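Why this split exists: single-chain examples teach little about how molecules sit against one another. For that reason, every record in the complexes split bundles all components of an assembly together and asks for one structure covering all of them. Below is a record exactly as it appears in the raw files.
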Amino acid sequence: SAVISQKPSRDICQRGTSLTIQCQVDSQVTMMFWYRQQPGQSLTLIATANQGSEATYESGFVIDKFPISRPNLTFSTLTVSNMSPEDSSIYLCSVEGRTGGRYEQYFGPGTRLTVT
Amino acid sequence: GESVGLHLPTLSVQEGDNSIINCAYSNSASDYFIWYKQESGKGPQFIIDIRSNMDKRQGQRVTVLLNKTVKHLSLQIAATQPGDSAVYFCAEKRVNAGGTSYGKLTFGQGTILTVHP
């Protein structure tokens, strides 16, 4: 299994500002993902972070709002830009790893963002 | 930590009872169905998965049942313990023709399980 860390673990930000969340994995992985979990809700995929190319965004999410970097196979960042209170959520980094011939997805602890 | 499951369905059981958590899925083309457990302040943790060509799979104290006719998935936890208290999510995933994963998970609503000593 992969060990994933995220920074910061939580933050309180003012509307209109931006926050960059870091995700670090303890091994090289091909696929990294960013999810959002709004209060009392399930997880929604924001984008797939591709190494060496632009991220692939899901419907409803755009690069200008959620720019993503993936400089290597162990690290990615997600920026939440021009924040509003509606962006208050937990943001989770996820990676896919192979365990005994099966593909499993592992999640980081999440970054709890509150926008005031 | 703050709960993320304030608006999710809830299930309360006594310690030692068996728990059944249900999930309805939408995509008939999904290849895998997966159950995750999310404790307060943590990311989801893999519990068990089942391929779409199976109807039952057992793990340690957990059993997943898949009914493709009605697009229904369930997680059974035997002898539920207080440490099982968490939010449980089902998720769907597709794999490509080569067997490697697309990696994209589609999560269901989630259920809050509370186990009383």
